[in-house]
Amino acid sequence: MLNNKLIVILGPTASGKSNLAIKLANQFKGQIVSADSRQIYKEMNIGTAKITKKEMQGVPHYLIDMIKPNQEFSLAQFQKKAVQIIKDIQKRNKLPFLVGGTGLYIQSIVDNFQIPKIKPDKKLRQKLESKNNKELYNQLKKLDPQALEIIDLNNKRRLIRALEVCLITGQKFSEQKHKGPDLFNVLQIGLNPGIKILDKRIDQRVKQMIKAGLFKEAKRLIKKYGLKPHSMSGIGYKETLLDKAEELIKIHTRQYSRHQMSWFRRDQRIRWVKTYREAKKLIRDFLF
Questions:
Q1: Which H, E and C letters describe 128-170, residue by residue?
Q2: How many Cβ atoms are within 10 Å of 208's Cβ, its own excluded?
Q3: 8: which strand partners?
Q4: Do β-strands 113-114 and 178-179 pair in parallel, antiparallel, or remain unpaired?
Q5: Among the residues of the chain, which ranges form H helices?
């Protein structure tokens, strides 16, 4: 029944996907693999809205607290580890749930991306690092406009990697992410409560984060690691150095949630739900 089956629970930030996934995992004897590019970092708990042991309700979670904030973690590394864990869960006759809001992480598993194995060029990277996001965007637009459809324009590391691949190989980055043969029999369930509810939840979450000590966490991490690591580009950290930090975090989080929905809407295979009951029925029909 569970052989090779994978449930994906996705959605924008603050949509409630973690709570939904835990409830469903308990119902269907599942285990959760995180597809969140921020929760992989240790020490970054409040700003990433990292799930706590208590909130896990006994459901095993993987790919959380993997690396230090100053360490690199590539899409290829995520894909390799996630595939290994999903297969291991299946071998133990449990149902794997891939849960998160990082679209590229999810798509790399669902579509089995054949990621280019091109080693980083340190000199080239240093040259690209000296440019701002707008300059990198304009350069990539000339070399590979299609790549801009699959890259978060605020993600400097991804922009640099795309340019690096284009410049080293002489080929378009967008054409090198080929889909491979399906690894799993996948059901993708998307959770979208609507913009008004999302915005309200985002505002509430930011207030709770600040109350829980977000500014203190950010200050400690910035002092320890600085702002250069990719991890520190995440919403909720750099804003704490500016005036009206709370309002900025809310605005940037809302913008990010819109970007996530734009990404997910392109995939017609996603089954959108609003309730646990709807998701439960979809999974039951998928399994049986």
A1: HHCCCHHHHHHHHHHHCHHHHHCCCCCCHHHHHHHHHHHHHHC
A2: 12
A3: 98, 188
A4: antiparallel
A5: 17-27, 53-56, 75-91, 103-110, 122-129, 133-143, 156-169, 195-212, 214-225, 245-265, 276-287
Sheet of 95-100: strand order equals 61-62, 30-34, 95-100, 5-10, 185-191, 271-273
Which domains occur in the chain, in start order? 5-113+179-287 (3.40.50.300), 116-176 (1.10.20.140)
CA atoms of 258 and 270, how far apart (whole Å): 17
Q: What is the per-residue pLDDT across 7-65, written as a single tens digit (0 to 9) for each? A: 999 999 999 999 999 999 999 999 999 999 999 999 999 999 999 999 999 999 999 99
State which amino acid sits at residue 182: D
- Give pLDDT tens digits for 172-225: 887 766 789 999 999 999 999 999 999 999 999 999 999 999 999 999 999 999
CA–CA distances in Å: residue 184 to residues 114, 194, 216, 275: 15, 30, 42, 25
Q: State both tokens at 237.
A: 């950290």
Of 95, 93, 102, 90, the residue nearest 64 (C-alpha): 102
Would the pTM count as exceeding 0.85?
Answer: yes
